[in-house]
Amino acid sequence: MGDDGDEGDAGRGGRGAEQPDAAAQGGDAAQDDDAAQDDDRWLVVEGRRWRRADPALPADMVERLKSHLGRGRSGVGAAKRRGDDAAVAEARTRVGFAKHGLGERGPRWWDEPEEARLQRAREALSDLDALDESGS
């Protein structure tokens, strides 16, 4: 996977990463309970925590959002190779919408009611579809 400038991607040290706390590192029984809960919310890569996608989203919605995410990441890389800053910005917009829809950015999905989470994903897909219609 190439460097597409997506700040929320694992292994790149972007702003989307959060340093693991003691619960993510394990420890006593209370911390182990917290770590088990964190496993559902976070993916730990090289000591950094990355938010997982919202598990409440229907599979077809996740597939569509991940498709947009992949297209956006690919677009960032291609635009960077061309030196097209405007296209990089457009592609990053697609990545951002997809990541918000998946719950990987924005409000923590586990703190929101399920209907609000589903609405967030529907709005992201609507925004992404509008990008397709506008040719971005």
Tell me what the structure shows.
- A two-stranded antiparallel sheet has the order 1-2.
- The chain is globular.
- The chain has 136 residues and is mainly alpha-helical.
- The two termini are 23 Å apart.
- The protein contains five helices and two strands; from the N terminus they run ααββααα.
- It has helices at residues 22-25, 29-41, 59-82, 85-102, 114-134, and strands at residues 42-45, 48-51.
Features:
disordered N terminus; 59% helix; mainly alpha; 5 helices; two-stranded antiparallel sheet; 136 residues
Strand elements, count = 2
Mean pLDDT: 80
Low-confidence stretches: 1-34
- Could you give a short account of the major beta sheet? 2 strands, antiparallel
SS element count, helices: 5
Structural class: mainly alpha
Strand content: 5-15%
Estimate the global geometry from the Cα principal axes: globular
| Major sheet strand order | 1-2
* Helicity, as a percent range: 55-70%
Give me the strand/helix succession. Answer: HHEEHHH
- Alpha-carbon distance between the termini? 23 Å
Q: How much is the radius of gyration in Å?
A: 16 Å
List the helices and strands and how they pair.
Layout: H1 22-25, H2 29-41, E1 42-45, E2 48-51, H3 59-82, H4 85-102, H5 114-134
Antiparallel strand pairs: 1-2
What's the gist of this structure?
It is built from 5 helices and 2 strands. With 136 residues, it is mainly alpha-helical.
